[in-house]
Amino acid sequence: MDFANLKADEDLIMGVHFTPGRQGRAIDRVYVHNMGGDLTGRDCHGIWQDREASAHYCVASDGRVTQTVWDRDVAWHAHNWPENQRSIGVEHANSAGPNTDLTEACLDAGAHLVAAICLYYRLGRPEWLGNVFPHCYASPTDCPGPLREGHSQHDEYVRRAGEWYDRMASGETDQRDYESAVDAADKEDKVLPNECLIQPDGKPCIWHVTPAYVKGLTHPDQMRAVQDVYRRNTGRDIPVYAYGSEEAPWAERLLQSYPKSCVEV
Ligand SMILES: [Zn+2]
């Protein structure tokens, strides 16, 4: 999910059960829903073919986000026409049946998405009943289950939406996105590509190679800081290779693969 630009991991746009355009009405709020089961965006897309309902985004239990109605169109999620017309609807997968807690990945991605929508449409910091509403505000329902006020995940969800908003608004998100990628990679016991230290031949420095850039570290403290952060994030030591050694015959080609502006050695 590209949160800054509201580009979902997957677009599976409904052909029925939404209203094209917003008839001049501005988006000024987000509605939060839960799906009532452990469903994916594709599952919701399928169910809504036969049901007069839809939403703009679906967040699955693995945190994957699917866009099912374009933001510019009205989705039928709140069972309340004026509220539908002015809002973006976000569905969250429950980890099991109706009203069960969301997974950590779903909770975090959903809160991040709500923050991203608030920022993108200039709605201000996410505020419950200010610019973020539960489905049950617009019509009688149990939705959004554990995210309702006074229910198990409400406080954490609202807290995270605010935290994500602050980070995004201050431009910190790249780093945070990267840190979550490290966390996710660690949980799945995968090694992130391209992060290592390379010791170039005969030069008094170390290159820090990351997915985004290559930078020469000239002071031992810088190297220790990189090693420390990597260890805290991943629980293991950052790989160190000697340039051109048998373990790193690829180092030269790796460096060549970065745009010049990303290499500072
Ligand atoms: Zn709902």
Summarize the structure.
By secondary structure, the protein is an alpha/beta fold. It folds into 2 domains: 10-173, Lysozyme-like, CATH 3.40.80; 192-264, no CATH class.
Please tag this protein with its features.
alpha/beta; Lysozyme-like; 2 domains; five-stranded mixed sheet; 8 helices; elongated; binds zinc ion
Question: Tally of extended strands?
Answer: 13
What is the helix tally? 8
Overall pLDDT? 89
Low-confidence stretches: none
Can you identify the CATH superfamily of the largest domain?
Peptidoglycan recognition protein-like
Q: Structural class, from helix and strand content?
A: alpha/beta
Question: How big a fraction of the residues is strand?
Answer: 15-25%
Small molecules bound in the structure, each named once: zinc ion
The amount of helix comes to 25-40%
Structural Rg: 22 Å
Major β-sheet profile: 6 strands, mixed
Q: Which CATH C-level class of the largest domain is it?
A: Alpha Beta
How many structural domains can be distinguished in the coordinates? 2
What general form does the structure show?
A: elongated
Q: What separation lies between the terminal Cα atoms? A: 31 Å
CATH-defined topology of the largest domain: Lysozyme-like
- CATH structural architecture of the largest domain: 3-Layer(aba) Sandwich
Descriptive overview:
- With 265 residues, the protein is of the alpha/beta class.
- The chain folds into 2 domains: 10-173, Lysozyme-like; 192-264, no CATH class.
- The chain has helices at residues 41-47, 81-85, 104-120, 135-138, 154-169, 173-187, 220-234, 251-256; strands spanning 10-11, 18-19, 29-34, 57-59, 65-67, 74-75, 87-92, 132-134, 196-199, 206-209, 214-217, 240-242, 263-264.
- The protein has a 6-stranded mixed β-sheet, with helices on both faces.
- The radius of gyration is 22 Å and the shape is elongated.
- The chain starts with 9 loop residues before the first strand and ends with a strand.
- The mean pLDDT is 89.
